[in-house]
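Q: Hi! First time asking for a complex rather than a single chain. Here are the components, and I think there are two in total. Is that enough to go on?
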Amino acid sequence: MSIANILADLLKAQKRRVMYHYGLYALPFLPCLAFLLLHFQVALSSALLFTVLVLALFLFILSTSRRYKALCVEGIVLHLNRHYDDLQESSQLLLEDIPTGTLKSLQKQRIERRFIDHFNAHQFNGCWPKLPIKRTIGLSLLLLVFTVFLLNFDKGMILGGPKGLQIAPKIQSPISSQQDVVLNQSTVIINPPDYSKMQDVHQQLLNIELLAGSSVTWKLHFNQTEQPYYLLFNNGESLALSKDTISSEFIGRMTISKSRIYRIAYGEHKTPLKGMYVISANRDKAPIIKVISPKKMSNEYAKDTLPVVKAQVEISDDYGLSNINILASVAKGSGESVKFRDQEFNFDTQQPLINQQHGFSLEKTWDLSMLGMEPGDELYFTVIASDNRTQNAQQSRSATYRLKWLEETQAGLASEGIVVFFNPDYFRSQRQIIIETEQLIADKPTLSSTNFKETSSDLGHSQQDLKLRFGQYLGDENEAQEGSSFYQAHQEEGKTHNGAGETDKDTDHEEHAQTHVKAKQASTGLAEHSHKEHTKKEQTSGGLTSLASVIEKFGHDHGDPEIGPISKRNPVGLMKRSLTNMWQAELHLMLAEPEKALPYEKAAYKYLKLAKQAERIYTKRLGFEPPPVTEDRRLTGELNDINSKDHNGFAKPLPTQEQAFIQKAYLAINQIQLTHRLRERDKSTIKQLSDTLLAYSEKDVDRQAIFLKQSLFIEQLLTLESGQRINSTVKLKKLQALLWELINDSPVKAHQQKSFINANQELYKEFMNNVTNIAGDD
Amino acid sequence: MSGITFKPLFEQAQTLTLFMLLLAIFLFCVWSAKKRIDFSLRLILVCLANGLAMVSIIAFILQPHIKTTVTTNIVLLTNGSEKQVMLDQHLGLQAVSLSQAHANQMSQQLQQPVSFIPSINALFVTYPNLKQVQLYGHGLMPSHLDSISDLKLSFTPAPIDTGFNQLRWTKHINIGEPLQINGQFHYSQSSDNQSSDIHEIQLINPAGKMQAKTRVSHKDNFELSTIPKTQGIYDYQLHLLNRQQQVIKKHTLAIQVHTPNSPNIGFMLAAPSFESRYLSNWLTQQGVTVSSLNAISKKRFHRIKVNDANKKPTVDTPFISEKQLRTLDLLVLDGRSILALPPEQSDIIEQAVQQGLGLLIWADSELVEKQQLPANEPSAVTRMLKGFSLEKQASTINDVYPLWSQNTLAKNNKTALSAIARIKATLKQDLLTDAIISSNIGSVVMRKPMGLGFVGISTLQNQYRWLNHGQQALYSQFWQQVLSNISRREVHNRFINTWQQEPNFVGEAQTSCLTAPKEHATLALVNVATNNIQQLKWQQNLGLDTNRCATFWPQMSGWHKIAYQQPSEHSDNNALEQFQYYEDDNAWVTLRQQQKVAATLRTAIKSRSLEPKETHSWQALNKGIFWVLFILSASFIWWEQKSFKQK
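A: Yes, that's all I need. Here is the structure of the assembled complex.
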């Protein structure tokens, strides 16, 4: 092996040795690093890999260092010179290319021989510094122990003692934080009441929606089973959960009749867990009764007809019906001798409804003669239905329908071959028309098109009847019929007018008109009407052309009152307005547009009422009229038998207590909104508000979800610590908006005059300064 | 013309000595260099360097100044100027803005530098010789304009954004009183591409539901009103919608609704009537304490008191006595009863009115008759009735429609009442007789001040007809109007409600005044949200010494409470408070713009007479330059010497 190769090998070996040294420098710290990673819950493989990478990185960095790169053959030979004396500090000659025959070459030859001898003997192994392996291992262990000691110092490890290192057993500290208790699993079983025939519901969600009266079973599994658990409800109730020893579940049962909010609590002190849950109890609704036939609430049957009436009813309920019957009253006789007989009936046939689970279509055929009725008698009946709720079954009643068997024959008026029946004495009032129109609108989806139009037309006819009835009292000229005495009289008058000289009649007419106008002006302030122009028009019109023109000519019509100014208190004007609305209502009803007719009907009703109230005429009592009491004589009598008296009382306040509370709650929520904190003194109000909203949720089914949500939000607010900042601005605004809607419009209140600025300042100053004296005297 | 001048120190001996010394050093340096170096470029450079060093030292010590033309005319760009085109003659001037972001924006837009000035007062620091300002944009608030009132101002206003201007609303109302909002709508063509200026204004209640709305076009005045439901502090919203029903502006209308103190009312009528019965019912349902005295016989009375939880008067206690009247806030008498009053009772009533009691007289035919007759001698009754003239009518006047203070219900009322007579005031204007309720026939309820109280007279009859016609609200508002104008004043609310009805803004001066505050009483401003308390200092009120005021500048927006606390030895109402809402500076943009434009235009017009002159100033040269020159020249000299030595 040549010397150059030997030197190259030596260099490599030296480099390796240096790397080993570096590695040994890092070695003590690597276990500590790995242990630290494990302590912070890094996976073992990841920790080891990371440690190896750190070592590799460390070695790589060191390999690029100058010191490592400075390792070379020249350094090797210099090191050999120092270590081996017999090389005579001449080892560097081995690297030189020296020509033979010189002193240097002789020395080189000598050194080569000694170099090879050394290599052959021990391969230069003894001249390199030893690797401090043992020291490194010892240091590593020491560092490792020190690291472990530091990390576990707070766990109460004890060092020393006669038996050596002892580690005290871990003291199991009691569960002090809520986070230790965890609800692992929950099962809720809802058993609806038997009468509802609903299936049991199993769910995992703790927010429950059920039928009021349902029984609920909670089965909860916690990570901690050594302590008691409870359910805390918003109304202060608590339900202790019992432990099932086999499954370690905690079970509780309760029958729910009202909506409520609850939490899960643990421990002797009933510390609540995080989370609030809602139980939404839906109420069983009362049965719905819809009378299909008879359509009218009052029905009349002629004497000579067969009084067989068919009543058809549809009744439905959300969970089932238990009892349906008809309560009927038969009225016999008239006047003071009328007698009533009550009787209960059942329906003849009962068919289930197709589109409703618990709905029936029922029919009953009335044979009035079989009921012992005679012409002139009346039958009133109402349908009563009860649902199948076990406790406190709910009952619904329909409207009362009247069937009248008429006593006298109705005479028909034949006119050009058409038999026209007079209107019966009874006809629908305006209020009744409104009710039936609203019913028709509600029934529109279920009625056929033909039925709908017929019913609407029928109502239109009723409206027309009413309009005519009131119209004839107002002397509506359009309603004047041929054959009436008024028309006939004026027709003759008209002929007389036409026959006589126009001038005389005009003059008389003019004088009469002027007198009439003056009287009219005195009472109503109408503008003057010129009859000259009026009569001139008639002269030029060329005689009678229509009934209206006759009336207009001779009927002293001074213009339509509707055109002229109508006194606000004039009942005639108000009736005219009512009639106008009746016209519109009739039009729309005839066109089968009850939705459009309804506002007109209501307006007509309003004006009818106003007309009734507009002018009340008080008639003077006839008879004894005592002499008027003058003020001088008044209260001059001595009454010793009557004492003066005091009366103290309290008026029923407005608003109601409920409204007053809602307003108070609004202010409390407003305060939270402004300050972002809940005051101690408002907590009771807020708590009461939660209960109030829960109560509302049962009454207002349509907004039940809203009320429950807000109640839950309030309960969450109450769990916050005193002074804790509340950031739920959006939720607070929604709650405020809900409360605002619940507050009724405030009544206008009387109040004192506000303090003023411009006044007698000295006087006021003196007064203000003495105000304590004034208050103190009382 | 620029030049360089030296300080007057030149004449001083020290400067001369220094100059001589430096000159000597210079000459020595030049001589020694001449000795070393032959005449060449090198020598010249050395001499120059020495000379430069000498001059630098001299200049460093003597601080020369240079004459420059100063900036006296600047362009101030306020918000809104981004929409404007600057006039040519202003383009070369220095432009400034009071907002950094705005300055950057305008720099980009105008392609010329725009400086940022932190405040108006800083203008004079940056431009101490400022004489003229060209203002663009929406202008400045009046408080800022005061600082530049001495300058010549020319203002080119920017178009005002679409929105509300001249807006007012009632900020402090009693429950049941209407909240009335009045304003004017401004439409800006440039801000909207639509050709139509018809917009809709909606009043939104605290629940987020629309309460009232109206349609407006440019410069239309509008009025909206509603009655708040409950007491407390909360806000309504005013929304502005465009033609497409999109909300383009939202504003907050903050109000405080007070629960008024229920008055204590007494009735002493010759005979009960429907009117008194209905009125009593309405009052007692609200919790008002009502006392009425009905004569049964000559010496027998039936006294009814409702809602009085405190005391139980006995029938022997006279109804009309100083003590009793002190407990009442309003006494209602009809014509017959007031005419039948014995002199001692009428004196007591007059004295009570002087002390603040309100007196309401329901005129009847007897009063109308008797008041026409001349009085034999002046009496308390005469004095109380003085100033009112009841015009005698042949019969009761029908078809009377009462009206008051823009009440919407009254305007739309269709139910007619009747009146016994018209009332005319016979006293002069300075005695403050005014009509509370007018009507189509004239005044029907009037009042006059009498000492601290008021005497009112009403000729209206059968207001209860409103109740029969289902107009409960109108009936209530009528009596609220009458009672709030005649009854005794609140003595325990010392706040003088001079609050402006326009919005109040953060950073603007606000004033709170109270009537006759007690000695050592304190006033504090409390931020409701943060509970931060700021004590306010009373100001010396030079006018009326019964009122005291405090001025403050709110720093934060939102609700604030102004709390009055008086020393505990005063038993009446130790603490009073009133709430006020302060808007952010960026709220009510159009209103603010309109205010700024108006104020700036006024100031600009006033400043037209000012003629600024061009000014020059002397500006000191930067000493650092001379220091650098000295270093450079000294370094050159040192290097030259060193290189010479080395050779």
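A: The two ends of chain B are 51 Å apart (CA to CA). Let me know if you'd like any chain examined more closely.
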